[in-house]
């Protein structure tokens, strides 16, 4: 049976803090494809991904998915002191995953009594900001080519794991657009496809310049 102290960042906490957290939480295992949270679902708990991978997305009025990001550990929803709220998005498991669920009201009390718990969770909240920064760049700043270049630079392993139509959906572009951009990057000698069909980067500087131009 899994115990909280086996997982980062809780492994760094003293026994007293771990014991206090265990009194207000439970660990649940989710299967691949299972939804942890539904968009607009009423929630009163704090969800923390201990192990696995989760896809976060919203659904538009045409029932199309709007991809927001992937998480491999950390908060699945944002922490708020008044935690009687609704889930902002759908959270789906990409692989079998473990999630720690904390009772929100009791968790708020613990933060006042245990500063070390507050410190750990504050650091994790700061990490969540990276997801929002990427989302803003991808959807509000980058054009399609910059989206692909950024994904290849920082998420090449994940890009190579997923099928092309999945990668296009994650970038919120059409599969045909993705294919056209990849062919262009091949022609320009920036990337290549190896013998097993995986993309390799040949010129990181040129690749990086594509999305850096959009940041300026």
Strand content: 15-25%
**Number of helical segments?**
8
What value does the average pLDDT take?
Answer: 88
- Tell me how many strands there are: 12
Indicate the radius of gyration in whole angstroms: 20 Å
Largest sheet: 4 strands, antiparallel
Order of helices and strands: HEEEEEEEEEEHHHHHHEEH
The helix/strand class is alpha+beta
What is the end-to-end distance? Answer: 50 Å
Numbering strands along the chain, what is their spatial order in the largest sheet? 1-10-4-7
* Mass-distribution shape: elongated
Defining key terms:
elongated; 4-stranded antiparallel beta sheet; 8 helices; alpha+beta; 216 residues
Quick structural gist:
The chain has helices at residues 15-22, 104-113, 115-141, 144-154, 156-161, 164-170, 175-187, 204-215, and strands at residues 25-30, 35-37, 42-43, 45-51, 54-59, 65-71, 74-75, 85-86, 90-93, 97-103, 191-193, 199-201. By secondary structure, it is α+β, with helices and mostly antiparallel strands.
């Amino acid at each position: 049976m899994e115990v909280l102290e086996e997982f980062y960042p809780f492994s760094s906490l003293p026994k007293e803090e771990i014991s206090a957290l265990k009194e207000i939480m439970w660990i649940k295992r989710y299967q691949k494809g299972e939804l942890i949270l539904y968009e607009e679902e009423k929630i009163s708990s704090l969800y923390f991904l201990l192990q696995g991978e989760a896809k976060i997305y919203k659904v538009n009025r045409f029932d199309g998915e709007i991809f927001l990001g992937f998480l491999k550990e950390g908060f699945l929803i944002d922490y708020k002191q008044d935690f009687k709220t609704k889930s902002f998005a759908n959270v789906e498991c990409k692989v079998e995953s473990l999630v720690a669920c904390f009772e929100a009201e009791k968790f708020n009390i613990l933060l006042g009594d245990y500063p070390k718990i507050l410190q750990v969770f504050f650091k994790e909240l700061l990490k969540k900001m990276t997801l929002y920064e990427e989302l803003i760049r991808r959807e509000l700043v980058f054009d399609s080519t910059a989206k692909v270049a950024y994904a290849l630079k920082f998420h090449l392993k994940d890009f190579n794991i997923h099928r092309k139509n999945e990668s296009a959906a994650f970038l919120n572009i059409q599969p045909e657009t993705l294919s056209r951009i990849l062919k262009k990057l091949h022609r320009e000698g920036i990337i290549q496809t190896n013998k097993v069909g995986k993309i390799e980067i040949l010129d990181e500087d040129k690749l990086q310049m594509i999305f850096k131009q959009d940041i300026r």
